[in-house]
Amino acid sequence: MSKKYDVCAIGNALVDYEIEVKNQFFADNGVEKGLMTLVDEERQEALLAEVKGNVRKKQGGGSAANTIFGLAEFGGKGFYTCKVAADEDGELYTKDLETVGIDTNLDSNNLYHGTTGKCLVMVTPDAERTMNTFLGITTDFSIHELSEEAIKNSNYLFMEGFLVSSPTGLEAMKEAKRIAKENGVKVSLTFSDPSMVKYFNSQMKEIVGDGVDLLFCNIEEAELFAGVEGMEAAKEAISKVAKEFVITKGKDGALVFDGTAYHEIEPFPTKAIDATGAGDMFAGAFLYGINHGQTHAEAGRLASAASSAVVSRYGPRLNQDHINEVLSILEK
User: Fold this and answer.
1) Whole-angstrom Cα distance, residue 301 to residue 278?
2) Which domains can be identified in the chain, with CATH numbers?
3) Which of 143, 190, 211, 318 sits between 20 and 30 A of 271, alpha carbons compared?
4) Which pTM does this prediction carry?
């Protein structure tokens, strides 16, 4: 019997503030370039005051959210579990999900008291993204937000690595994984960011536990997780904890392991403007592909084309015109 959802995802709900900055901004404000850094509300507000005129746009984001949006944009059916507050950003976030047909645990008439989390996504001329994140109410994301029915009614559970930084988030991940495994739902995980693997390595290893069905990471995250150097050592280490996996390599494409064979996925040449959400989109398109009859190699090619399309424009999302462009490129 087919399930209602291709993927049920859980993750931090953050409203992304997309901001253009010069490299000097980081030196002037003591920001570590190229990483995601958790900050308190006061620090984030101070940074926002410095760059307010450079905010390009504001939209619902977060690692797993971007992935579930990618899945939905290609025509997949997703459920997203998260936590936002009854404020302007929370309302924006809820409407974003509703607009593309993603089911959610959120009820716009019954949101939580507090402040919705937000992420300053600072993009430099070299297209690199640097994120400073105030988690707000999603700091307390917990098992209470989980929908057991949605997990049971999905082919895949997808969890974002950012949740391991919160004790309640980690417990929610473990409970979601338990529900999935007991109900024959495949467990997929993304490491999300090198900082999560570097600073929360023991928590990440705790959630990987006895293994996952599908893992998404980049080469740096794989090396940090396993304490090794180089692709050969990294893929050997990851193969011990994931039945299937994807290791993305930026402009050099990706490596996909389907449980039996490795597939080198070629990159699609593009002019990079903004790398925000490239890995998230790769995961979303890949999950769409393997849920809709594609081989892992075919899904990898779709995901590579989709992530290339994302980095060639600002923001982590593609609209329907962009999706059609990706599909036409693949047909050629």
Assistant:
1) 14
2) 5-12+61-116+135-331 (3.40.1190.20)
3) 190
4) 0.90
